[in-house]
Amino acid sequence: MTDTRAIALTVNGSRHDIEVETRLTLADCLRHQIDLTGTHVGCEHGVCGACTVLVDGQAVRSCLMLAVQADGAIITTVEGLASEDGQLHPLQQAFHDNHGLQCGFCTPGVLMTLLEFLQHNSAPTEGEVRVALSGNLCRCTGYQGIVAAALDAAGRMRQEPDQINGPKKS
Amino acid sequence: MTDRLFEPRYGRLEDAALLTGKGRYVDDIHLPGMLEVAFVRSPHGHAHVRSIDTKAALALPGVLAVYTHADVVQALTSDHIPPDELVESFPTTTWPYILPEDEVCFVGEAVAAVVAENRYIAEDAAALVMVDYEPLPVVSNCREAAEPGSPTVHRHADGNIVSQFTIEYGDVDQAFSEAAHVFSFSLNQHRGGAHSIEGRGVVANYDANAHQLTIWASTQTAYKSRDAAVELFDMDESRVRVIVPDVGGGFGGKNTVFPEEVLTVMASRLLSRPVKWIEDRREHFLACIQERDQEWDVEVAVDAEARVQGIRGTMYHDQGAYTLLSLHVPHNSAIAVPGPYHVPNYSIEVLVTETNKVGTIPVRGAGYPEGNFTMERILDRIAQELGMDRAEVRRRNLIPGDAIPYQMPMNTREGTPMIYESGDFLHCYEMALEASGYADFEQRQKEALAEGRHIGIGVANMVKVTGRGPFESATVRVGRSGRVVVYTSAMAMGQGTKTTLAQICAEQLATEPDQITVVTVDTASSPIGIGAYGSRNTVNAGNSVHLAAIEVRKKAIRVAAHVFGVDEHDIEIIDGLARIKTDPTKSLTFKDIAKALSAAKGCPIPKDMPIGFEATVNFRPPDVTYCNATHVVEVEASPETGGVEILRYVVVNDSGVLINPTLVEGQLQGGIAHGIGNALYEWMGYDENAQPVITNLAEYLLPTSTTVPNIEIIHVETPSTLNPLGVKGAGEAGVIPVAGAVVSAVENALGPIGIWIGEAPIAPVRIIELIEESKASP
Predict the structure, then answer these.
(1) Which CATH code for domain B15-21+469-619?
(2) C-alpha B399 chain-centroid distance
(3) Do B673 and A141 lie within an 8 Å CB cutoff?
(4) Less crowded by CB within 10 Å, the N or C end of chain A?
(5) What is the pTM of this model?
């Protein structure tokens, strides 16, 4: 009864030619088939935002998308943010410096949401950051550290504009 | 304490892995040949299970097993989750089943477990399990459950009252007979679920060759998991190992052993393959614990000066269909009412009643928020009735600083005297009023109203028991690598526990915290411990680490003094070295000392010195310690829409000595966000058939970035006298007074209309209803 398709995904610069069940979500595909477990699943109905990844540059809920729908897409996950030598992306560094995470489970989705947001709004107000984050649920922080980190990151990324799209991949 | 050698606001050691996707949460664990479990769950609040037909499910390719009650009876020593001491004295109908024999008592109760090659197949198969249910009468409300003639939650039970007790002291009836004023009212209080963003989850691997069971659990209570496995699988502790990986939040939802966990382990034990269960959000709504409902009828007696003379009343607590964890919530609520206030006479009767809903145990705050809400509503009612300022009523009733230590005329849950040993509630209160500009508020309110804006202010005070024992363990050990490792039973679920403990250890060993590795719960390296709940990690584990690190430091000094032939006072510990103070060229590295203390050849150590560069301490706090806080909140409320926006939030909090103020602020901010959810948003609704009407996060409103403001925090650090570090808990401090303060502020904002709010959470639609009721009966 299983129905499968061959698809190709480019994830964090690496191409993956894989056979997937047609009903497999993109989140499960990334986590369990490509073994990139940094993307988390918090609700499986598109509300919490923990599973947010970039698909062709857009922040999407990978729990609401099937892997087959991403065939041919370029995907960025949290694992694609830091440079290969381990240096944190300014957004990640800002989260560390502003206590922007506690348990860390919602964090990957928050980072990917903000990455897209800051690409389009490099000098946001606090209110704009809060609206941008309103689709990501966090139970630990009360959002204060996350908002501070986002504003801090925006400043850092304006200083280093080449970092906006994340580190270059070879 | 020695002087701080590093910045207290040390950056978290946990962050680098979690920010780069390298965290290891339970669902990130993948073992070769691993199977997954899905559960068949009751769609009825109460039903007789006539039969379960598993044939079609078993026939599905990829399905390995479908377990029902009969399998549990065969495989385990009991078909119940092992009860705690108190629950043991309750009728067995109240004990949660691992799988029920022939009766389901809440929607979501698991009746069968399906094990398959993956979760997708397991869920397909679960849908093929045919269960023949005969619906039975349902009890949905905790007050109705106590009425004679009510249907019973369990068909063979005599009634629904699990426990009935009274918390009382003084002579409350006399206080009422002599009072200048008596006011009475009722409250409906609701706290939803835990809703960590990571749900519950477990991976079990039974290795038949080694007869060894390894369990990775996203839990707050790994030692209970280990002990339950030992008991239910009849294996000794040497055969069972529980490891807690990164945990994506707890908040009480992971603070007990669940049927799903036992069944996942059972599947691994029976199939000799690794098995995983990861809770999805729907399951969290249906089958994880909640704190849910309390209904209160209270009366207060006051003198002519608005001083409380007595409080009496009745509280109904919704326990759910099973008692998973004693009576912590109702008991805490009943003893929490007086809090930081002087209440000379008191009597609350508590009826703990079962309903056909999932079981309730503590969610962050553990019954204290409800007790606090009751008291703050009482104080607001006094102010309203006597036409007094709400802040002045609180000032007159707070326990003054010179009365502390203050012995409450009642006992803790353990039966020991309740003593507020340190802190100054009134001082914190005045600081908070000052910082929030309370005195000017009336003027600002008038100005806002002139612009058509309804703003209001609310104030609430709290005291919370923290640091409950009996202990947590810590071993500080330096091996031949020279690396300092802390092994502890403290469970980490996002609080920054590893950073805090590394800081405490680093202080004694004069090294940077990032030079220390902290290994949180693994029962192989920390075989005894309790759990992460009740704001207790830093008090219990923190002091164990502190004392163990002091022992290790002493050992290093002694070895170095012996090697160099000098007095111990001549040795100092700095940067991972033990050296002669006056001649820093003469030094031993921790690596050298570890080698010497392993009794390696050619490394002389004093003959009477115990082997091993290590120390283990299980610190036992002599008593609980209390943190306290004042919260002041400003809101704007719309009489047209019922919408409430929080404009400003000021906190003065005393959690004793702070190891890392940034992490404490994070705890307070998160706790207050949770409290805002309890005040305005979070409602786990059931209908009269005990059918959940809310099963996803689009309907259940968690606080978001647009509904939680920045919190202004002022710390007061009154050291606890009950532990060497002087620390008190913080994890639950934030959540407790929020609903009381917010609801008071909403009332105040709508002051010209004049509403009374007797419930939490208060949704916009209810605010509009209350406004309409108020207009109808002026």
Answers:
(1) 3.30.365.10
(2) 27
(3) yes
(4) C
(5) 0.97
Instruction: Please state whether beta strands B290-302 and B275-278 pair in parallel, antiparallel, or not at all (unpaired).
Output: unpaired
Omega prior to B470 cis, within 30 of 0:
yes
ipTM greater than 0.95? yes
Which of chain B's residues have a Cβ under 8 Å away from the Cβ of A37?
21, 24-25, 27-28
Of chain A, the end-to-end C-alpha distance in Å amounts to: 40
- Whether the CB-CB separation of B129 and B112 falls below 8 Å is answered with yes
- Cα gap B341→B379, rounded to integer Å: 10
Confidence of residue B448 (pLDDT cuts 50, 70, 90): very high
| CB atoms near residue B694 (< 10 Å) | 17
Helix or strand run (H / E) with residue B65 = strand B63-67
pLDDT band at B377 (very low <50, low <70, confident <90, very high): very high
pLDDT tens, residue by residue, B660-701? 999 999 999 999 999 999 999 999 999 999 999 999 999 999
> Is there a contact between A102 and B495 if contact means CB atoms under 8 Å apart?
yes
Nearest one of A168, A61, A149 to B662, comparing CA atoms: A149
Nearest residue in chain A measured CA to CA from B29: A37
- CB burial readout B102-140, b (16+ within 10 A) else e: ebbbbbbbbbbbbbbebbbbbebbbebbebebeebebbb
Tell whether A43 is within 8 A of chain B (Cβ).
yes
What does the angle CA B613 – CA B619 – CA B623 come to, to the nearest 5 degrees? Answer: 170
**Which tokens is B11 given?**
């950056």
User: Mutating which of A41, A89, A140, A141 best tests the B interface, going by the most B Cβ atoms within 10 A?
Assistant: A140
- Rounded to the nearest 10°, the torsion over CA B557, B563, B567, B568 is 10
**DSSP for B446-513, written as a single string:** HHHHHTT--EEEEEEEEEEEE---S-EEEEEEE-TT--EEEEE-PPPSSS-HHHHHHHHHHHHHTS-G
Q: Which residue has the tokens 């925006």?
A: A154
Q: Write out chain A residues lying below 8 Å of B679, CB-based.
A: none
Partner-chain contact B12 A137, CB within 8 Å: no
Interchain contact, A140 vs B23, CB within 8 Å:
no
Q: How far is CA B550 from CA B4, B314, B543, B584, B726, in A?
A: 15, 50, 10, 22, 16
A99 touches chain B (CB under 8 A): yes
Say whether pLDDT at B170 is over 90.
yes
Identify the CATH number of the domain defined by range B398-409+418-466+624-778: 3.30.365.10
Give the residue from chain A lying closest to B735, CA to CA: A142
- Report, as an integer, the average pLDDT of B361-374: 98
Q: What is the 3-state secondary structure of B335-359?
A: HHCCCCECCCCEEEEEEEECCCCCC
Q: Whose structure tokens read 């990829």?
A: B62
SS3 call for A104:
coil
Give the closest residue to B513 by CA, choosing from B472, B476, B540, B484. Answer: B484
Q: DSSP characters for B276-327?
A: EEE--HHHHHHHS-EEEEEEEEEEEEE-TTS-EEEEEEEEEEE--SS-SSTT
Element (H, E) at A7: strand A4-11
Report domain extents, chain B. Answer: 15-21+469-619, 398-409+418-466+624-778
Among A47, A81, A142, beta carbon nearest to B711: A142
Q: A4-80 architecture in CATH?
A: Roll (3.10)
In chain B, whose CA is at the least distance from the CA of A96?
A: B15
Taking all residues of chain B, what is their mean pLDDT, rounded to a whole number? 96
Kindly tell me if the per-residue pLDDT of B190 is higher than 70: yes
CATH of domain A90-163: 1.10.150.120
* C-alpha atoms less than 13 angstroms from C-alpha of B68 in its C-beta half-sphere: 18
Domains B15-21+469-619 and B398-409+418-466+624-778 fall in the same CATH topology: yes
Q: What are the backbone dihedrals phi and psi of residue A83, each rounded to the nearest 5 degrees, phi first? A: -75, 165
Residues B30, A82: C-beta atoms closer than 8 Å = no
Going from N- to C-terminal start, the domains of chain A cover 4-80, 90-163
